[in-house]
Design goal:
87 residues
Length: 87
């Protein structure tokens, strides 16, 4: 690496650290608000999804359900393959 590449990397690392600090500050502030709700008026405490909207984005999307007939077909195909291997 030459000097310019090193300086670009140092700048990128510094920017990443600053972004991480911003995220941490935001999360600390949200936590403080939730603690205030929990201590003063627990009935008005927002749900997790309302307090942290990004959680919905992180949850894995459910895969499409495989129809029962297709599961049975796959099981029969596996059994047929086993029988062919035996013979």
């Amino acid at each position: 690496m030459d000097f310019n590449e090193i300086m670009v990397q140092v700048g990128a690392n510094k920017k990443r650290e600053q972004e991480e600090l911003k995220k941490r500050a935001y999360m600390d502030h949200e936590l403080a608000q939730l603690i205030a709700y929990a201590f003063n008026d627990p009935n008005k405490m927002p749900s997790v999804e309302k307090a942290y909207p990004f959680i919905k984005e992180m949850e894995p999307q459910p895969k499409e359900a495989i129809p029962e007939w297709l599961k049975m077909k796959q099981a029969f195909m596996r059994q047929a393959q086993k029988i062919k291997k035996i013979k």
